[in-house]
Known about the structure:
Elements: H1 13-36, H2 41-54, H3 56-59, H4 67-99, H5 101-104, H6 107-121, H7 125-136, H8 140-164, H9 168-176, H10 181-215, H11 223-232, H12 236-264
Helix pairs in contact: 4-6, 4-8, 4-10, 4-11, 4-12, 6-8, 7-8, 8-10, 9-10, 10-11, 10-12, 11-12
Amino acid sequence: MEMVLPPKKKRSPASVIKKWAIFLAVVLIYVWTFMGIDIDWGRALERMSSNFTRVIPKLFDPDWGAMGKVWTAMVETLYIAFAGSLMAAILAIPLGFLAASNMTNSKVLTTIGKWILSAIRAFPDLILAILFVVAVGPNPFAGVLAIAIGSTGMLGKLYSEVLESIDFNIVEAMEASGANKIQILFHGIIPQIIPEFLSYAIYRFEIDVRASTILGIVGAGGIGTLIQFAQMNRNWEQMGLILLVIIIVVTIIDFVSSAIRRRIV
């Protein structure tokens, strides 16, 4: 039996013109952008060719003698990411409740909560790290604070969206049966949100591990400090080992956290 496919919809001339106009606009934006960048392409290509023949082979010849130092710095980076993610996962809970429109029943409080989360997300982790290095000094605690504050903005927004999507029929049924606010919170709301809250917190930890690897460049501890020293000393063999360790550790964490999140949700 032959399958009869539905006839293709005829595209109107206006839709075709609209798509081509959007395509040309995007192309023109790219052309205008590259024309506005003052780059000596000849010199850039020459330097790129020189670096490929001089630097890249050294990156693929890691300095295994520095493994102890590199691994210690990587473990410190994992500590920074874990401590910062844990702090953010806790701090984001009240902000998520505040920003969820169905939790406060007040547009003013909800708007304030959303503004706080938006303001936090406006600062990149590296800028936060610079601010905290100035505040508490160049040490791993500055990195923990930068990760914690930066992650709170994202997690708070995700938590508020989870709260706004819960099944409110359960809450209404508990209210009708005479349950108080505490009972509704612990038996009607928290069981619905815990799996997704944990999943988002673990996913954020993956991101924070990557972010923590560069915070040391501004003095916030971790393996980024070794990256800076290796770059300053042109020690490309050690840089190759650092990159290899980062790739392996981040890949393992991605696989493990993905498996955990699949079991939770």
